[in-house]
Write a structure and sequence with these properties.
The chain has two domains: about 30 residues; about 270 residues, Rossmann fold. It is built from 14 helices and ten strands. α4 runs parallel beside α14, α5 packs parallel to α10 and α6 crosses α10. It is globular and about 85 Å long.
């Protein structure tokens, strides 16, 4: 069979052009649909932007004094960040003439209040509930940053000027397998990034830097790219941190749990130095709630018990006990996967009850 170079080149060119056209059509469709269905941040001028100081690096914090909205097909919420790049503090019971109770929240997008208004977030509900129950002003500083894990939370707790807290609440979104944005994966990524960055060759460092620039450009310009990255976020978290893609591997996951354990001990020690009480708030993913799976909570509970750290009741059990006809959509957005207002309210009330019943207020 005679090889026809000209025809092969034409076919290859046709394939490339067809692929480009298909991608352009899909991008056009995505601008009509995905922009509404999938979460995006817009600034005061309506432009799609990133809230992060350094796009693609949530551990570097959010943009100070940012004002905009968080939109998807399921919600449209206002986002106002303070001068340090955190969601505005919440105060409740300011009319009560007593010394305020100071609470500091640590966590990722769930504790941040992704997809809900400020007063309808965990911070808003726990401030209102505790203030009502103890008849004392409550001031909640929210240091949660979407996309971060315990390593970042510890650094924030140590470095950010804030009122000395009486209670530190650490929200942990833990999944015992690879997934975008969960603390076990983030902790591993942080660990390998911090311990491998100094050994990267100049050539590899340049390649990683180029990949990060390409990723930021695509995220800014393409809705289609943002959609696919949302679906396979764990791969990008691992790839662009220079770390690893966590799979269902017992040895790897044991290391992840060990790192998580160590970081929680450090956070607890820092809280004790400040004469504060650390309380853990487990945040289950939507799949564990749907399966009524409490395995991850039980692992975290054992860590808490070993290290004498307080842990609030299991939300998986609370959600299923709240009504006779359990409806997952009452607590989680269908597409976005974050907590709805009701989940924030239920968990904040449970946390307030736990704090009062266990006499954790000093």
């Amino acid at each position: 069979m005679k090889f026809n170079l000209k025809k092969t080149a034409q076919n290859l060119l046709l394939l490339v052009l067809s692929t480009v056209i298909i991608l352009l059509v899909l991008e056009w469709i995505s601008r009509l649909y995905f922009k509404q269905a999938y979460t995006h941040v817009i600034d005061e001028n309506g432009a799609v932007v990133s809230m992060q100081r350094d796009a693609g690096h949530p551990e570097n914090g959010l943009r100070p004094l940012f004002k905009g909205r968080l939109r998807s097909g399921e919600f449209d919420t206002e986002i106002i960040l303070d001068s340090l790049g955190f969601r505005s503090p919440v105060q409740s019971g300011v009319e009560l003439k007593k010394a305020p109770l100071h609470i500091t929240l640590l966590g990722d997008s769930f504790m941040f209040g992704w997809g809900v208004e400020l007063n309808a977030s965990f911070a808003g509900f726990i401030a209102a509930e505790l203030s009502r129950r103890i008849q004392r002003p409550v001031f909640v500083s929210n240091l949660a940053i979407p996309g971060t894990g315990q390593s970042s939370h510890l650094k924030l707790l140590k470095s950010i000027p804030q009122p000395t807290p009486h209670i530190v609440i650490s929200g942990l979104y833990l999944i015992d397998y690879a997934a975008s944005g969960n603390d076990l994966t983030d902790n591993l990524n942080d660990y390998f990034r911090d311990n491998s960055s100094r050994t990267l060759s100049n050539n590899r460092a340049e390649k990683v830097g180029l990949l990060r620039k390409m990723r930021r450009f695509l995220k800014q310009k393409s809705n289609l790219y943002r959609f696919f990255e949302t679906q396979i976020g764990s791969i990008f978290l691992a790839k662009f941190s220079g770390a690893m893609n966590v799979q269902r591997d017992e040895t790897t996951m044991n290391k992840a749990w060990h790192i998580t354990d160590s970081l929680l001990v450090e956070i607890n020690n820092f809280a004790l130095i400040k004469d504060a009480v650390l309380v853990l708030q487990y945040i289950p993913n939507v799949f564990d709630v749907s399966r009524n799976n409490s395995g991850v909570y039980q692992k975290l509970e054992r860590i808490a018990e070993t290290n004498k750290i307080a842990i609030a009741p299991n939300p998986v059990e609370i959600f299923h006990q709240m009504n006779n006809h359990f409806d997952l959509n009452t607590y989680y957005y269908v597409v976005d996967g974050h907590w709805r207002e009701e989940a924030h309210r239920v968990c904040a009330v449970a946390m307030a009850n736990f704090i009062i019943e266990n006499q954790l207020i000093r």
